[in-house]
């Protein structure tokens, strides 16, 4: 069994999606997700996610590390700061994070999620 997973999207079909309609604040954002790794009985995921412009409410019950590859987004923390994100930025959201994600320019990120 190979224990090395390259973040290579060649030959991998993206899952298409969107935020739940009741969470959308503006626009019509569409997602593409390339899940490259699933481990530990479905409690760890890693891959690449992309969204077109739009703004929606977010609620995290999981821990997530993100590294922005391209685009421009703003994550607004409920009752707190807004965080502008561009290529090269990395961050972690912890369980209980609430707010909204605003994609200004189509954004692509690498992620690792731990449930």
Automatic annotation (TrEMBL):
Pfam family, one: Cupin_3
InterPro entries, sorted: RmlC-like_jellyroll (IPR014710), RmlC_Cupin_sf (IPR011051), UGlyAH_Cupin_dom (IPR008579)
Record domain (S)-ureidoglycine aminohydrolase cupin: where: 39-111
UniProt-listed PANTHER family: CYTOPLASMIC PROTEIN, CYTOPLASMIC PROTEIN-RELATED
Protein name per its UniProtKB record: Cupin domain-containing protein
Source species: Daeguia caeni
């Amino acid at each position: 069994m190979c224990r090395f997973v390259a973040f290579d999207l060649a030959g991998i079909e993206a899952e298409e999606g969107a935020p739940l309609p009741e969470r959308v604040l503006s626009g019509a954002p569409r997602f593409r997700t390339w899940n490259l790794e699933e481990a530990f009985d479905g409690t760890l995921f890693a891959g690449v996610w992309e969204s077109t412009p739009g703004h929606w409410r977010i609620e995290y019950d999981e821990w997530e590390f993100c590294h922005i590859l391209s685009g421009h987004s703003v994550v607004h923390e409920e009752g707190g700061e807004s965080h502008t994100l561009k290529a090269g930025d990395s961050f972690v959201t912890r369980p209980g994070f609430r707010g909204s994600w605003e994609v200004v320019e189509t954004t692509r990120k690498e992620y690792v999620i731990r449930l």
